[in-house]
Structure formats: C-alpha cells, structure tokens
Amino acid sequence: MAHKINLALQVLPSVPGEQVYAVVDEAIAVIQASGLKYRVCPFETVIEGTYDECMEVVRKAQEVCFKAGASQLLVYIKMQIKKDEDVSIEDKTGKYD
C-alpha cells in the first residue's frame, strides 16, 4: 500500500495513575520524531503516512511505553485507507482549523 492513510493511535499504559501522562508523552515523542504528519487529540493521535510507515510508528510507540515502565498496554488503532488515493488529515478537519 503506497498511498497515504490515516491511523488513529490510542495507547493506554498500565502504570500508576500519576505516571500515565508521562508514558503517553513518550509515545507521542516517537510520533513527533517520525517525521510523519500528525495531530494530537484529547483521546488519540492521528498519523498520516503509508501503511508501513504508520505501523512502524505504532510498534516503536509500544516499545517506548514498555521501556518507560508500563507492564501492559491497551492499544486502540483505527485506520482510514482508500484503494487508489491518499487520505489526508486536512481533507477531514481542514475546514475546522
């Protein structure tokens, strides 16, 4: 799949309550460092890239959460994929920016 997709990623780490945001911030840092277009939202972060690029970010985000102390993760992923064209964040939310 060479076309760009949108992938929404929500990671819920199993850590003491006061550490949740710090661990989630580690996952967001992976997304930021990826070079892919993204948007942080209150419940999830939306990433734009090829399927393989997005899934690599998902894998790395999970790894850093475990390194940051999570004993377990609940990971929720939603994807929008079109057969023959790109999907962009702006197409869906640009009129609200």
Report on the architecture of this protein.
InterPro entries: MTH1187/YkoF-like (IPR029756), Thiamine_BP (IPR002767), UPF0045_domain (IPR051614). Residues 8-96 form the Thiamine-binding protein domain. Belongs to the UPF0045 family. There is one protein chain. The chain is α+β, with helices and mostly antiparallel strands. The chain has a single domain, classed as Alpha-Beta Plaits, CATH 3.30.70.930. The chain is 37% helix and 29% strand. The chain has helices spanning 20-33, 51-67, 89-93, and strands at residues 4-13, 37-40, 45-50, 73-80. A four-stranded antiparallel β-sheet has the order 2-3-1-4. Strand 2 (37-40) and strand 3 form a beta hairpin. Helix 1 (20-33) runs antiparallel to helix 2. It is globular. The model has no long low-confidence stretch (mean pLDDT 95).
Main attributes?
97 residues, 4 strands, alpha+beta, Thiamine_BP, four-stranded antiparallel sheet, Alpha-Beta Plaits, MTH1187/YkoF-like
